[in-house]
Amino acid sequence: MKNIGRIILYIFLGSFIFIQFFRVEKNLGEEMQADDFFVQNPSMPEALMTQMKTSCYDCHSNTTQYPWYASIAPFSWVIDQHIRNGKDELNLSEYGSLESKKKISVLSKICEVISDSAMPPSNYLMLHGDAALDADDITAICDWADGMALFIMRNR
Amino acid sequence: MQKIIFFSLLPLLAIVIFVAAQNTTSAPAQLSQDIELDWPEDVMTIFESSCYGCHTEGNGSDKSRAALNFSKWEDYKLTKKVGKLNDLSEMVKEKKMPPAKYLEKLPEKALSDEQIAVITKWANDVAEKLMGE
Fold first, then answer.
1. Which of B61, B131, B133 has the most A C-beta neighbours within 10 Å, making it the best mutation to test the interface with A?
2. Average pLDDT for residues B38-46, to the nearest whole number?
């Protein structure tokens, strides 16, 4: 009986070591390039910028701030998938390359998903408490985003 | 004799009630009745047949209605309307909507190239107009 326990442990350890050989490429592009959301919107209040960067940039930009466990499989795979999905939906590093209408759509949707508590996702918040947005943050981001969207409409 | 007639009619009555009940529940809900949008008829017809099934109040899922809810269109902010028109046009053009899974079950909901052209042109025109406001 003791042997079986030991065999299971070895199998577990062996598989754990084995899966470490399946590495994923990290999302570590250059920060704040010309098309970046914040570079494009320099007038954004600093506090909002910091909050959005903390809450959104890990999955919605070309530069992720990785936690220590991000290099360990299977966590690395899950994180990689989250980032892929996030960037697929919206990549704030490429905001500047979008046409006006799409920018308005993005700004409107940012407000929409944070208001519905769809973003940041609850599983992300479990490990990133500082990413949580309170009601004031949400109002501030929505007001700013709506103002910016109107500005784009009138100045294109 | 009367009893026999009564009992033979009973199942008939039950069937009539059953069918009537079925009809009231399965008759397609009047999807457009609450939605008074001043949009061209050809556009509305396409929306009604291919989109309203998930994107109106009481239909679809929370997710589909959060993405777009025609019943609440008039409550949307100007910027949200422009955003939604842009998304709608994009989704339809890229054939992401109606979703492939949905079309597997209801292939008749698929949009023809002509219908896609009608929707995207209309959406772009309306968005342009709204952006000028």
1. B131
2. 91
